[in-house]
Amino acid sequence: MESSESIKLKYEPVFISVNDTDTLHMMRIYGNPGAQPVLMIHGAVENGRIFYNEKGKGLAPYLAMNGFDVYAADLRGRGASLPHVSKESRYGQTESITEDIPAFIEKIREIRGNKNIHMVCHSWGGVLATSFLVRFPENIKRIKSIVYFGSKRRVSVYNLHRLVFIDLVWRHLFTLTGKILGYVPAKKFGIGIDNESRGSHSGCVFWVEEKGWVDPVDRFNYGEAACKVTLPPALYFAAENDRSLGHPSDVIDFINESGSHRHEYRLLSRKNGNMHNYDHVSMITHRDAVIDHFPEVLEWLSG
Question: Which fold would CATH assign to domain 4-302?
Fold first, then answer.
């Protein structure tokens, strides 16, 4: 059997037209094109690069080296999806849920046939993925399992980090710049690796603050829908030093509002045997993650 160290990975861009103007992108990373497919969904002010680089670093190459066919998605306007976010962008998280994620799923099924898909999500990407599944429950049978890193819908914790990053920056500064510029230039502020459309940002702000899990555009009630379905088996990670972007208590709240489903929860911390007290980003990007908790992801997806 060929060792993982000797596997030559292929990086293959996949493009999907969702309408006359917008094209989505996924980076397919694989050694074995017949392996189990994994769709990776990034969070806010991010793109698919949170999961990989061409030097073979990150969770996506790690999974590909260990026998999976990985698709790291760029949501609309982010990463290599075109056109990039600008003042002309008229979409938000509703389109991510009802158009983008369905398009990613269908493209993977077009490439790989009817093979079921795993999903791996970071941060707000987990909220979008879960919203997609509870809104379109016919897709639940297509998803073998899900792994969430720091995914929360509401921010209920109150501390200094929340006051600065959620209340001051995310809610007030970004809302103001969105009104002035027509989009949120997160990269210029050095916050995140990509910009956000005004619609995506405002939708996120709405859900972070509201107890009700209701679509701000068309009023679809995700909270009620979640009580009527059973999501795929899920592994949830939270990080000890994640102060507000995915605080452990908010991750647990998200688990509870997602309805009854088989799940496991891991708090990444030294006291639990991990190498570091990770934060919201380092839990997915730290160089030690590959020998610390990424093997747990591999075990979960292989189970």
Answer: Rossmann fold (3.40.50)
Task: For residues 276 and 268, give the distance between their C-alpha atoms in angstroms, rounded to a whole number.
Answer: 8
How big is the chain, counted in residues? 303
Max Cα-Cα span within the chain:
58
Residue 55: per-residue pLDDT: 86
Task: Output the average pLDDT for the chain.
Answer: 96
Rounded CA separation 261/51 (Å): 26
Handedness of CA 44, 46, 48, 50 (dihedral sign): negative
Please give the helix or strand (H or E) that residue 237 lies within, else none. strand 234-239
Q: Name every residue whose Cβ is closer than 8 Å to that of residue 65 and which is 6 or more positions away in sequence.
A: 4, 5, 7, 9, 31, 56
Contacts of 24 (CB under 8 A, 6+ apart): 15, 16, 17, 18, 73, 74, 75, 76, 81, 100, 103, 104
Cis peptide preceding 83, ω within 30 of 0: yes
Strand-pair category, 23-30 with 183-184? unpaired
- Given a contact cutoff of 8 angstroms between Cβ atoms, the answer to whether 235 and 264 are in contact is yes
What is residue 50's three-state secondary structure? helix
182-240 per-position pLDDT tens digit = 999 999 999 999 999 999 999 999 999 999 999 999 999 999 999 999 999 999 999 99
Helix (H) or strand (E) run with residue 250 in it: helix 248-257
CB of 33 closer than 8 Å to CB of 11: no
Structure tokens at 295: 């093997």
Residues 237-264: b if buried by 16+ CB within 10 A, e if exposed: bbbbebbbbbbbebbebbbebbbebebe
The pTM score is: 0.96
Residue 296, helix vs strand vs coil: helix
